[in-house]
Amino acid sequence: MSGTRSLTVDEFPDRVVVTLDRPERRNAIDQRMVDELHDVCESLEREPRILILTGSGGVFASGADIAELRDRTAADAALGINDSVFTRIADLPMPVVAALDGYALGGGAELAYAADLRLGTPRLRIGNPETGLGIIAAAGALWRLPALVGLPLATELVLTGRILTGEEALAAGLVSSLHEADDLLAAAHALADRIAANDPLATRHTKRVLREPAERHPAAEREAQAELFGSPEKHRRMTEFLERRRRT
């Protein structure tokens, strides 16, 4: 993959960094960006790697492109244009890390909610003001946000349009840590380093089982563990662990 008009994509052996790159529109999510995100997903479904999402120009994403959104019809709503790509991102085999600076509003917030892990900066402003524009937050906020911060706070945020600061997002557990803007991407890479040090297959199973509905537990764990117990990588890692312990 290479740089495009809406995204900049940097590839590494164990991860891909995708930068939303429409600084003239504060990285607003338009159809072109959606299409390019689908291309990224297709690549990561074929060759699973960690995905780091971030934005250019001190902004993650100011929301969906209102000029496009204004002209969308009921038929467009039924297509779930943004929801479909955000769900595809959430369902990627390997973890997704969102590094959030500046505005992450509306669709930008919903893209962040689709990530497995979120880091922010003190100047982060995240929330869902959609009802003020005559629509609902229909690309994941109404079901992902309650799972992330609890139903009472999520209800307040989506009904009032209140925007959380970075500190408030940290207190709510919406982001796991705050970093200065110049350190944000390095912090995301450090988190990816910790994930990448683990067994990729075990990581993939962990992500998948975390998302299983309640009625699938504990069967989902047993099925995944049965496969991992037969893995040569499990034997290698455990043997190395025992050898290190014997040497200490």
From TrEMBL:
Protein name: Enoyl-CoA hydratase/isomerase family protein
InterPro entries: ClpP/crotonase-like_dom_sf, Enoyl-CoA_hydra/iso
Organism in which the protein naturally occurs: Leifsonia virtsii
Region (Disordered): 213-248
Bias-annotated ranges (Basic and acidic residues): 213-225, 238-248
